[in-house]
Amino acid sequence: MNFRSLMMVIDQFIKKIQKRKALIGIIGMGYVGLPLVLRFCEEGFRVLGFDVDCKKVAQLKRGRSYLKSISSSRVSQFVRNGLLDVTDNFSRLTKPDCIIICVPTPLTEKKEPDLQYIEKTTEAIRNQLRKGQLIVLESTSYPGTTEELILPQLESTGLKVGKDFFLAYSPEREDPGSKRFTTSQIPKVVSGVTPDCKEIAAALYGQVIQKVVPVSSPRVAELTKLLENIYRSVNIALVNELKMLADRMGIDIWEVIEAASTKPFGFSPFYPGPGMGGHCIPIDPFYLSWKAREYDFTTQFIQLAGEINVSIPYYVVSKTVDALNDRKKSIKGAKILILGVAYKRDVDDARESPALAIMDLFQKKGAIILYHDPFIPSLPPFRKYHFKLNSSPLTKPLLQRMDAVVVVTDHSRIDYAWIAKHVPLIIDTRNVTKNIKQWKRKIVKA
Ligand SMILES: NC(=O)c1ccc[n+]([C@@H]2O[C@H](COP(=O)([O-])OP(=O)(O)OC[C@H]3O[C@@H](n4cnc5c(N)ncnc54)[C@H](O)[C@@H]3O)[C@@H](O)[C@H]2O)c1
Predict the structure, then answer these.
(1) Chain-wide mean pLDDT for the chain?
(2) Which of 99, 103, 128, 224 to mutate to test the pocket of ligand 1 (most atoms within 8 A of CB)?
């Protein structure tokens, strides 16, 4: 293809996108993929969703949502009007003009990148790749994933990037549970393997996102996403470490952070907690540490932040043991209610939640564990932990039976003053008891 005809192909592709004639394929119908599907449908695009989980596919096809943050009516309207179809048949990957990859990027047991999902997805795309398709990776990964892992696989078909197909990276910035920003309001960093790849990808996201931020290469975009998460991880570790020191000094770290936050420049508050959770912050930084080794480089801040954040559940447990001891109670046989197992407020996601580590540590010490979480009726099996527990209804008799309640997640619909009234001891990892004056002697911050 000569330069002129390539320009024509790109021009036509962008027009097809702008006229909503391009079919969008999204792989991975999870916390990232599903909101993106709906955003494209809202703008009138036809979307074909792909997932290996046939239960999710079946639910979506029936117009049902399995995510708390997304109502079934939002899904069903687009199934009914024909804009949305979902499948586990990956031979249909030949159909979409644009394919967006939103599959998981977890860690192995040894805290190394587990790239099997990206690899399998790339293989599935490779098997169906046709001329004129745009492929975009959204999953978080180390700098080089798009160009070192995906590109060679796709080019092994004989098709050339920037000429026969287009390849881009654009990280996701979903903030689950937050009502402050909708998907369209969060600026989107977009890069491409070639300038034309970037132009097409920017044109695609420009239809559904208010502000697109183009950057010079996929590696820049990949590291941008990691910087955002490492920044949070390091700052959370810093306040968690200071929390332990402040406690020893008899100072309330929350009051310190509140006071420091009045500085109008040069200070952004981060808050301590029970340890780090979720799919991103405890995991993504290690993608960079792993890649850094290839460059004979040790990412010390990431390692240190990881060590501190991993130690916090142990701190919470030890504060609970001490508080029980002060009340002449032993941890062995103590009845403990974990309040909130989601990794953050008002979400139904307990992946990598510090609640799991805390529950495991309590159980190993012989405590009897119950939990209550309005968003998580039962605990599914996790990567590392398997608890066969259902959420206990929050009643006065239940609270009165407990030796302690440990607040791990600060869900907004819980009446913490009512809890404090009925339990003998409340371990507060989130400062939810800040305004409770009456039951101070029952409250221990951890
Ligand atoms: N959840 C977040 O808040 C968030 C925010 C920003 C970035 N991310 C990143 O986005 C990516 C996806 O995260 P998520 O939270 O949506 O994960 P998720 O587990 O909620 O969803 C992933 C989906 O992909 C499916 N899947 C797995 N292997 C597949 C395959 N080979 N083919 C097709 N589908 C497959 C799973 O069944 C699941 O439905 C990760 O890289 C994550 O780090 C997540």
Answers:
(1) 96
(2) 103
Label residue 75 exposed, middle or buried (CB < 10 Å: 0-12, 13-18, 19+). Answer: buried
Q: What percent of the chain stands above pLDDT 90?
A: 91
**Average pLDDT of 340-351?**
93
Mutate to test the pocket of ligand 1, among 37, 139, 141, 172 (most ligand atoms within 8 A of CB): 172
Catalytic residue status for 280: yes
Confidence category of residue 110, pLDDT binned at 50, 70, 90: confident
Q: How far is CA 283 from the centre of its chain?
A: 10
- Ligand 1 centre and the CA of 32: distance in Å? 6
Amino acid at 389: L
Q: What is the CB < 6 Å shell around ligand 1?
A: 27-33, 50-53, 56, 102-105, 117, 120-121, 139-140, 172, 174, 176, 279-280
Label residues 157-192 b or e (16+ Cβ within 10 Å = b): eebebbebbbbbbbbbbbebbeeeeebeebebbbbb
Matching residue, tokens 């910035």: 173
Among 176, 187, 181, CA closest to 209: 187
pTM: 0.93
By residue count, the chain amounts to: 446
* Paired tokens of 56: 């999710």
